[in-house]
Amino acid sequence: MTPNTFEALPLAAPIQRALTERNYTIPSPIQAQAIPHLLEGRDLLGCAQTGTGKTAAFSLPILQLLHSNPQPLRPKSPRVLVLTPTRELATQVGKSLETYGAHLRMQHALVFGGVGQRPQVNSMRNGVDVLVACPGRLEDLIQQRYIDLSSVEFFVLDEADRMLDMGFLPAVKRIVAMLPRKRQSLFFSATLPPSIVELSHNILRDPVTVTIAPETTTAETVEQRVCFVERDNKRDLLLELLAKQKPGELALVFSRTKHGSDKLSRYINKAGITAEAIHGNRSQPQRDKTLDRFRSGKFPVLVATDVAARGVDVKSITLVVNFDLPNEPEAYVHRIGRTGRAGASGHAVSFCATDEREYLRDIEKLIQQKIAVDDAHQWHAAGLAEQHALGQRSGLKKVGNPGRGNNGGGGRPAGRSSQRRRRSGGSSRRRVA
Fold it and tell me: Which value, to the nearest 10 degrees, does the dihedral of the CA atoms of residues 166, 171, 173, 179 take?
């Protein structure tokens, strides 16, 4: 029977105390369905939208395991390994462990690139209970013999789909090969593409599959709109949207490139709206400072790339703008999942220019719904909207992508095929953890 309160879960008193202090009473669906299986020692493949509480779904069972079965630490070794694709997500997981484990004797360490390795090496010298790491830096420290994975009892692959999108599959396989055969493993992902299912078959042992929502769905609490607009008018339309934000509301704007995010941030600032950019070229301290300032409301607009925004857990985001449509439709699900989190409402507006019609069509095919068209702005490109609607109704062959050159008059944008090759190698306002 699925528990309907955290009190009904067999979690130790110190963990229950931490949950009570945070006013967490009702587990989200992914938590209610996954935690009992994990407490029983089962391997698990979990799929749920972003913002539904996946981090607590694995953090709470891990802490229960550590509390109920204390073991002396071994030098350079973790008992639990959580593998994440980005530094921001690793930091988020670390904060969750601190929150839920506030009354436990638990030591954890974070390992990721972009900062000096010496503090991370020092944190692992005597061993830790939980190591949260990104693949690149983890492999570096393993090769330098600063980390030993031979004692791992519990392995988590978090945001597995994004891990593969970012080209980490070879590194993940090498890291998994270093783990003991006898361990408990789980994958958590916002989507379950075939590549993830295939990988899970190779790593998980007789897993339980928990799917809270199909991987193609988007949060019901997010109002989605698409604006057909020529590329030269995108910035003016963006300023119009941002000007409508109320004081205290936060907006997250997605740009496809690092250079584009910097350029767009400067443009927004010149218009009198404070904005900052975050992307992979910024150092970790810079990224942490920017996120902290954004989270605390010091500025209302954050411009980000997909990689940098993964792990941005800011509950006050009311608007997500896809200034550039993603060339991978799965990224759209992740992007708009930054708003409407934990049952709150949110808005997602996507700009579609001439060279992005293919991307929009792929997104609507993935999420299995037609995104409502917003034509109530002066830059509405009626011709583009009509062409898109006509293509949907008639099933016409896909047109070439003007923004990426001639690809044969009906082919998929180059970015999609290249990324595929790389990969092949309710609405209540209750609080959830």
Answer: -130
Q: Are 192 and 215 in contact (CB under 8 A)?
A: yes
Q: Which is more confident, 427 or 131? A: 131
Digit-coded pLDDT (tens) for 334-388: 888 888 765 567 899 999 999 999 999 999 988 888 999 999 999 999 999 999 9
The mean pLDDT of 170-176, rounded to a whole number, is 94
Short-list 46, 109, 101, CA closest to 80 = 109
Question: Could you give the domains of the chain?
Answer: 6-211 (3.40.50.300), 222-409 (3.40.50.300)
What is residue 431's predicted lDDT score, i.e. its pLDDT?
A: 38
Q: Span 208-228, mean pLDDT? A: 76
The pLDDT of residue 423: 37
DSSP state letters, 270-339: HTT--EEEE-TTS-HHHHHHHHHHHHTTSSSEEEE-HHHHTT---TTEEEEEESS--SSHHHHHHHHTTS
Please choose, from the candidates 217, 250, 222, 214, the residue with its C-alpha nearest in 3D space to the C-alpha of residue 343: 222
Q: How far apart are CA 296 and CA 18, in angstroms?
A: 23
Chain-centroid distance, C-alpha 93:
12
pTM of the model: 0.62
Instruction: Using alpha carbons, select from 71, 51, 212, 31 the residue that is nearest to residue 154.
Output: 71
If DSSP codes are grouped into helix, strand and coil, which group holds residue 380? coil
Do 378 and 237 touch, CB atoms closer than 8 A? no
Q: Rounded to an integer, what distance in angstroms lies between the CA atom of residue 292 and that of residue 205? A: 39
Please give the biggest Cα pair distance in the chain. 68
